[in-house]
Amino acid sequence: MFMKAVLWMVRTGSRWRDLPPMFGNRSTTFRRFRGWREADGFKPIFDCRVRSTRQKIRHG
């Protein structure tokens, strides 16, 4: 649910206080997000996505 909450935030551009309850407690989700951000936890995910996109572009 954490990743779904983060993706919802990115997609909507909303504030953390607007996070729908279906994603769990917004304070807990934000603290987890902040921890991941500070530890560069999202970097491997984005790096993988960039590599995948580049491969698709090269190979059609």
Word description of this protein:
The chain has 60 residues and is an all-alpha fold. Helix content is 68%, strand content 0%. It contains three helices and no strands. It has helices at 2-12, 26-38, 43-59. The model has no long low-confidence stretch (mean pLDDT 86).
Question: What's this entry about, in short?
Answer:
The chain is mainly α.
Index terms:
60 residues, mainly alpha, 3 helices
DSSP strand count: 0
Portion of residues within helices: 55-70%
Tell me about the biggest sheet? none
Q: Structural class of the secondary elements?
A: mainly alpha
Q: What percentage of the residues does DSSP assign to strands (E)? A: under 5%
Q: What is the N-to-C order of secondary-structure elements (H for helix, E for strand)?
A: HHH
Q: What would the principal axes of the Cα set say about the shape?
A: elongated
Runs with pLDDT <50, length 5+? none
Total helical elements: 3
> What's the gyration radius in Å?
14 Å
| Average pLDDT score | 86
Measured between the Cα atoms of the first and last residue, the distance is: 33 Å
